[in-house]
Amino acid sequence: MRLPLLAPSLLRRALLAAALALALSGCATPFDNAPLNPPLSASGQPDVRPQRDIVGEHAIALSLSGGGLRASAFALGVAQALAEGPRGADVYDDLTFISSVSGGSLTAAYLALEGRSGLHSFRARVLERNFEADLRLSLWSPANLGRLLAGGLNDRSNLAAVIDREVFRGATFADLYRRGKPDVWINATDLYNRTPFPFIPPVFGGLCSDLSQLRLSEAVAASMAVPLAFAPVVLQTFAERCASGLPAWVQQAGAEVGGVTAGILQATARAYANYRNPQRMRYVKLADGGLTDNQGLASLLVARSVAGTPHGPLTEGDAVRVRQLLFLVVDAGRPPSGDWALQASGPSALDIGLAAADAAVDSATRLSLAAFREALVDWRESVVAFRCALPMERVRRHLPAGKPWRCDDVHFELDVIGFDKVDPERAQRLRIMPTRLALEREEIDLAVGAGREATWKSTALQRYLRRKEQGPAP
Q1: DSSP 341
Q2: Concatenated DSSP letters for 59-85?
Q3: Is the separation of the CB atoms in 65 and 217 below 8 Å?
Q4: Could you give the angle at which helices 142-150 and 8-23 cross, rounded to 10 degrees?
Q5: CB 215 within 8 A of CB 168
Q6: pLDDT tier at 145 (50, 70, 90 boundaries)?
Q7: How many CA atoms lie less than 13 Å away from 34 in the CB half-sphere?
Q8: Nearest to residue 414, comparing CAs of 357, 447, 366, 369?
Q9: Distances (CA, A) of 32 to 154, 157, 246
Q10: Element (H or E) spanning 427, and its range?
Q11: Does residue 150 contact residue 231 with C-beta atoms inside 8 Å?
Q12: How far is CA 407 from CA 194, 385, 387, 470, in A?
């Protein structure tokens, strides 16, 4: 998500308070960040694993950006549009995969857990809540100054506790896996290794920890943990519980050369190796996923690189069945703001800090999007080559009897669903809407409605609907 999660004035106050706190004597106030992730069982395997072979002939994937509740509401509108598409088309059941960061993670986790009914209950359960009422905001409190020194104004005892109790009702990843699809990747940032941290079983395999028993609220809180406003969410590593060594891709990553993906892969491999080294890391400190990629695409690039198959991370069955995959990048980020570019003086030191952080986030996001576009083209070509080389007896294992099929009838497409797809007046109102955890009813209406409108205007979605109506190529 674009920094900050809360209103810019709040982060400025937090930065000022942090500077003041450093000048004051006294002890930091402890906060609740004890790691809650359990180790792997004696078998070395998670208790519950996500279901696979979930991709059908037609599949839609969403990547939900950050941006506070504005992003959550905009993402809800996108999801609703899939169920209320042009000409009454309903393709919501084609939704197979969601990657998310920050405010988008609230929507992703909720819809995946609640299913289609979540399209109607999300507004009352999430969007109409004032989550800021549950946060520590006063910067005149000595205890809060101590908390800033200790790592952040807020911890698990407020936001994470509220979304666990009121939104997810104690649900774990095991509960999510039982739903089947969509498969959800909630992304945070590993502060020490400076890499994306997706809450998925392969990464928790690096920690030798059982993701299935972790509460969803922990992942969403980590994905939303903007520095200073929130203390990092902490996970523990359990290297002694892993029977296997490092996977082959970690050892091979150093051989990768060239391109954005190679750099991301190498950094991720170093992080994975650190998780298995108790002399290097015993705890993983997580913050807002938007710090490394505000659209949650970097971890998908890594998954593609380390899959070890031409069709991965799709299974063989997925690769055989899929005819079209539409990837919608839902971008609810805000453009540059402030009036200091209109005058010779300024910006202030605080504005410089905020602008530098935003520049780093936006740069990483642009690179990830460009790399993902290229990877999607390569992925489609690899899937076609795999399908065309596959013996027909293996093809028929994954298809209904008599189902028409052609090995090159595969379409992968990407589109960005952003504010530029709605009318200019509404787009401008969205761009100036504060990035915070409380919205007025009118703001909710605006963001949800804009998400629907922007999705319906997607030419990529319209092509997807036409192909679905036409059926398989002869």
Answers
A1: G
A2: EEEEEE---HHHHHHHHHHHHHHHHS-
A3: no
A4: 90
A5: yes
A6: confident
A7: 4
A8: 369
A9: 9, 6, 32
A10: helix 424-431
A11: yes
A12: 40, 8, 5, 17
Compute the C-alpha angle 374/386/255, nearest 5°: 55
Compute, in degrees rounded to 10, the torsion defined by CA atoms 58, 64, 70, 73: 30
Matching residue, tokens 């997925």? 318
- Identify how many contiguous H helices and E strands the chain contains and give both numbers: 18, 10
Between CA 34 and CA 220 the distance in angstroms is 16
C-alpha span between 159 and 231 (Å, rounded): 11
CA distance 55 to 321: 7
- Residue closest to 16 by CA, chosen among 448, 245, 348: 348
Q: Residue 227: left if φ>0, alpha if ψ -120 to 50, beta else—which one?
A: beta
CA–centroid distance for 93 within its chain: 20
Lowest mean per-residue pLDDT among 339-343, 387-391, 434-438, 448-452: 339-343
The pTM assigned to this predicted structure is 0.89
What is the reported pLDDT for 442?
96
105/66 Cα distance (integer angstroms): 8
Of 107, 15, 41, the residue nearest 448 (C-alpha): 107
Burial track 131-151 (b if 16+ CB lie within 10 A, e otherwise) = bbebbbbebeeeebbbbbbbb
Predicted pLDDT at 388: 97
CA angle centred on 101, ends 96 and 102, rounded to 5°:
130
As given in the structure block, the two tokens for residue 346 are 């300024």
186-196 burial string, b = 16+ CB within 10 Å, else e? Answer: bbbbbbebebb
Tell me the percentage of the chain whose pLDDT exceeds 70.
85
